[in-house]
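Quick one: co-fold with 6-O-phosphono-beta-D-fructofuranose.
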Amino acid sequence: MNPTLTNAWKELAQHAREWSGRHLRDVFNADPNRAQRYVAEACGIQLDYSKHRINDRSLQLLQGLAEETGVRSRRDAMFAGEKINNTEKRAVLHIALRNRGSSPILVDGQDVMPGVRKVLEHMSAFAERVRGGAWTGRGGQPITDIVNIGIGGSDLGPLMVCEALKPYGHERLRMHFVSNVDGAQIHQTLRKLDPNTTLFIIASKTFTTIETLTNAHTARDWFLASGATEADIARHFVAVSTNTPAVTKFGIAAENMFEFWDWVGGRYSLWSAIGLPIMLYIGPQHFTALLDGAYAMDQHFRSAPFERNLPVLMGLIGVWYANFLGSPSLVIAPYNQNLHRLPAYLQQLDMESNGKGVRADGAKVDYATGPIIWGEPGINGQHAYFQLLHQGTHLIPLDFILALKQQDLDPKHHAILIASCFAQAAALMRGKTGDEVRAELDKAGTTGERTELLIKHKTFEGNRPSSMLLLETLDPLHLGALIALYEHKIFVQGAVWGINSYDQWGVELGKQLASGIENALTGDGGALDYDASTQRLIALAKERVNLKR
Ligand code: F6P
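Sure, here it is.
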């Protein structure tokens, strides 16, 4: 449905006008309980949303919008295995991958749970053998290095989680992730490795992705060039895919393939066999805890009332900024070094899901949809992009993410980290008035014109909103819950906007054109099908560099 036709949308548009000129500083002053009231908690994650430009009326209207746009029934349809990915006619069941309940989940009348459990058992048995040293390379030595070759959802999830859970990693196993078709990445990685103790995971849902297959063939050539035989491939190459024929054609035996299903979207797949590198690294027990955390968040999303439902609150607050306060962007600022790939992971998760201009029913939207997601670990960001957030001309909300506890915690470092995180959120919200700057300058002895100039530059407008997400600790359980929280936040927004969050047609055109351009670059043929600019670039590249297939 078109959300702009709902009563709630119209009332929200009206209500948004009440917020122009209102400062969060005054909102806090007027409500001594605000900091306590605008906090929700689930699965060891606390969401403090008090520093947002919202009040009880805003929240009530936003929840009304969720009701009117059918978020509740769409959520139930997803959990029931209905084919809510209508353009690809697929169910959307990453929730089945971490389902700890005993009820069946049906797709086309078939319970998917036995298959899910079977693959998890296959993964665990394999992971135990590799981790324990029983699975050896061709010379009989245990595996020391694991290279995941995949891209997008077949790379970012496992990479992000392995980084986040480094303290839980196996001491013998070194993890490597190769995604880019730029040969520099695979060659620089291979240079460090011993073919006799390296295990490659070729991860591709479709097993047709050119970047992954090119890197996989380069890895196999490197392996065979070391003196290994075709028969040795079975000990050094495994695959994760939905495409058994293509995996077999590549030369990987069926017993070394870990299966998943078309109802798992690539960017939602780290819970599936795509999570194999994670399980190898942190072990089946911790991997299970990751699933448990996600399952707990699934249960919360399914059952908590909207006013205390974390994904619903975060999703609706995002809709408020995107559609009523004119903010197109969201910064992800984890104050945690091990979460340094979280912004990139969430960028794909959100932007590939909700970067859509057409509703599921085919109608063109005339309202903003998915936000531009970006970020870097917050503490580094403070010394880089935060200037624009504090004093730039755009309204850009932030998600601050902070673990109160973690492995490798150094209390002295952690105090500075936490203080910086809280200070940035406070500074963005309250700002600094001209009078405050003047008082500081007076105290420092600055006078005259210089004072007047500096007041202009040193004043912080403030009124810049943010969420504070506090994790009890950064461990597999809480990380699982955090990731699932974002998955469901994206779901809520997609449901409000009436879009299909689970296809990604927008990535296809560039792929189609690339294959024709590659032919033009490596063959004798011209490139007449392309625009003049692209033709010029092709001619230039052909003239300057010797390219081959
Ligand atoms: O091109 C985009 C995309 O299809 C993503 O959605 C996906 O995660 C990625 O490519 C990798 O796809 P595959 O796992 O099929 O290689």
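If it helps, Residues 151-154, 204-206, 209, 212, 266-267, 352, 504, 507 surround 6-O-phosphono-beta-D-fructofuranose (CB under 6 Å).
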